[in-house]
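Why should sequence recovery work at all? Because a backbone constrains its sequence more than one might expect. Tight turns favour small or flexible residues, buried strands favour hydrophobic ones, and helices have their own preferences. The token representation captures these environments compactly. In the example below, the structure is given first.
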């Protein structure tokens, strides 16, 4: 049995109550992840951690737009076309009322774009992993599985589109995804946990399921997750998956 522990976005801004986008109950869940690594380390062959990594200028942050929207504002295609908001670097003009890429991206979304509080800014405390998790992973690398090193996969650093999933790509414009869908192929079990369950975990798992590459491989570590909206339709993606 070759097992991968995949931890989605276990970062201070999500898991610490002082974080800018704290997920309720995440502090308890991160403790469960640490406990899992420390008690099951010999049964973990590899650890992969995704890291939400944004600049202040990001399409889902206020600084991208003029005028600056308040966090949790919903920007719709109709509102954008009407000139309610415009990207700071691509201001509206008479000849070019909207930026074509931004319009294309907004039209590709299943609903309005949510503007989040600034979070996981590159190099910040909020972007970093909690000390207890870092200590557990490093102890696993040195004392439990020498020569096995945790891999970190950053996502979200391209300013023009969201990256809930590790496998997000820009679509028609051809930018590469943050990671190829086959990056975790070859494991008998992938234990998935992290934050938020209904957003970044759900979108990553959805892409993995839709790829057809991971059938029967994904296991959800329920105690190692926390949700913003427990009634989100995205939670349906977990139906039928094994749990631990």
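From this structural description, the recovered sequence reads:
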């Amino acid at each position: 049995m070759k097992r991968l522990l995949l931890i989605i976005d276990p970062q201070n801004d999500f898991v610490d109550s002082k974080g800018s986008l704290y997920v309720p109950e995440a502090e308890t869940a991160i403790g469960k992840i640490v406990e899992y690594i420390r008690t099951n380390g010999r049964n973990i062959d590899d650890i992969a951690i995704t890291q939400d990594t944004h600049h202040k200028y990001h399409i889902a942050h206020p600084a991208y737009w003029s005028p600056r929207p308040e966090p949790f504002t919903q920007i719709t295609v109709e509102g954008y076309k009407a000139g309610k908001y415009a990207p700071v670097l691509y201001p509206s003009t008479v000849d070019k009322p909207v930026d074509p890429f931004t319009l294309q991206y907004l039209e590709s979304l299943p609903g309005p774009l949510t503007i989040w509080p600034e979070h996981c800014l590159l190099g910040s405390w909020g972007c970093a992993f909690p000390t207890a998790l870092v200590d557990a992973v490093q102890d696993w690398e040195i004392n439990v599985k020498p020569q096995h090193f945790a891999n970190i996969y950053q996502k979200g650093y391209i300013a023009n589109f969201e990256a809930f999933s590790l496998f997000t790509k820009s679509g028609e414009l051809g930018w590469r995804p943050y990671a190829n869908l086959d990056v975790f192929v070859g494991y008998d079990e992938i234990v998935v946990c992290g934050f938020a369950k209904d957003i970044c975990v759900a979108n990553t798992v959805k892409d993995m399921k839709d790829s057809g590459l991971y059938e029967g491989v994904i296991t959800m570590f329920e105690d190692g997750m926390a949700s913003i909206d427990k009634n989100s339709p995205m939670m349906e993606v977990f139906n039928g998956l094994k749990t631990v």
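A few observations help interpret the result. The chain has two domains: 3-54+119-243, 62-114.
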